[in-house]
Amino acid sequence: MLEKEERVLMTDSEAVKKQAEEIREMKLAYAVRAGVTKGRKREMKRIYSYGAGAIAAAAAAVFIVFSLTGFPNVGGNEILVQTASPKNVTDIELFRPAAARDQGFAAALEQGLVKPVNLGVEKNGVRIDVAGAVADGRNAYVLYSVQNHTKKAAIPIVESLEFGGVEAPSRWAESIYALDHFNSNEISPGETGYFVYKTNLSPTAKYNKDAKLSFKVWDTSANKYQEWLDVAFDLDSNMLKDNERVFYPDQTLTVASQKIKVRQLLYTPLQTYVDLEYDSANEKQIFNMINPVLIGKSGDQSEKLYYPIKMFNDESKTTLVYKCSKLERPDTASLKIFGIGAVNKEKLKLVIDLQKKEILEAPDNLLRIVPPEPDEKQGAGEIYLERTLEHAQVADSRSMWLDDSFTDAKGEKHKQLNPESLGHGGYVTSSKDDYSKDEKTYNFGKEAVNYPQPLTIKVNQYWIPLMDTQSVELIGK
Fold first, then answer.
1. Taken in order 337, 343, 345, 348, is the CA torsion positive or negative?
2. Residues of the chain under the 50 pLDDT cut
3. What distance, in Å, lies between the first and last C-alpha atoms of the chain?
4. pLDDT computed for residue 288 by the predictor
5. Beta 284-290 vs 251-255: how paired, if at all?
6. Residues 6+ apart with CB under 8 A from 242
7. Where are the alpha helices (DSSP H) in 37-111?
8. 19 beta partners
9. Of 212, 198, 203, 195, which Cα lies nearest the Cα of 98?
10. What is residue 169's three-state secondary structure?
11. By C-alpha distance, which of 245, 248, 252, 253 is closest to 330?
């Protein structure tokens, strides 16, 4: 993803020799990442994190539209008659631009694995057609188009993908707009939008083939949801099972004294999955791997897969998702990790005396409370937090994530409020200098000044890189 400059100061000759090999591999990894994401990442990036109101206001302008759930279905889903889709909106090539933004979908197109569906419904001038779908047991992709025959702009949102009433996980679901020049997911009157809906599938769930994709359509002029539509079709969530290769290494990788168990290695035509489980006895909570590389070999052919994404991650496990392997049948495979981002579990809290505006406890000593700028309006119960980290391993770093509730000194729980100002907050990284700057606004509310002090916030995510190169064999001859 990002090139990184390594600074190695060593005096021991053997250590220098060992580290030089690791640096070479890390530089190669980052070079691959840079090539994959060329044109999509800047040297400096700033990602702002605001309150729910600001996020809702900006939702129509994002490149990737995340699936939203939980809205009240005030109109109910009418049973609409499905009809065959017109050919001009179901040509698979119309969806190809989305492949540049998802490696699994790109693999499906490259191998011709998308199953045609060509069914759609129309309601009050909005027509939705499902052109095709593909799934590999871990991810599902549904290609759909939206025609807006009304006189108002519309924003389609996928509410859910179900298989016989069993809903697929929607936590990381997204609809990728399949246009190279799009500015938003808004569809103007008379226009047609092309999307690829992607969602995770639970490997333990029992899905049947009766799939249903449910939509809500936001009317931009009325500022409310006007239409609810469902498209039903057949989709086998394990349609590619005959082409899978699965291994159960049951190996343990120890990185920075933390044990990581490798439960399964799964090769599918779409992607490659490595299931990891963190030992419950670990003293640290692991938030990410640093440059994990999957190395495979088949005969004289070798392969290194870099730049995985995460899925189904929680405090106890995660899955690394790599692009599909080009090896027909690997003879050997190993996982190499250069470190982890982890924090002592007992330190995952932020204790603050709001009256004194003083941090009493934090995961490390780099976090501080900063005063507002002269032009910033800060609430009476609001604080600005800032943390700068050098040698941050920014390619794999994560921003700080604080819980949205806190407890006072008597143990009473309270909810934080939306920020009074949107000017402070964000995550800045520099690949050139390998540093990150994390800024957060936390609004306890003006009444919190009089709560029993101190106030304690649970820290859900915090980035402290721990470098330790280790590898484990997953497939052996």
1. negative
2. 1-76, 181
3. 33
4. 94
5. unpaired
6. none
7. 52-58, 103-110
8. none
9. 195
10. coil
11. 245
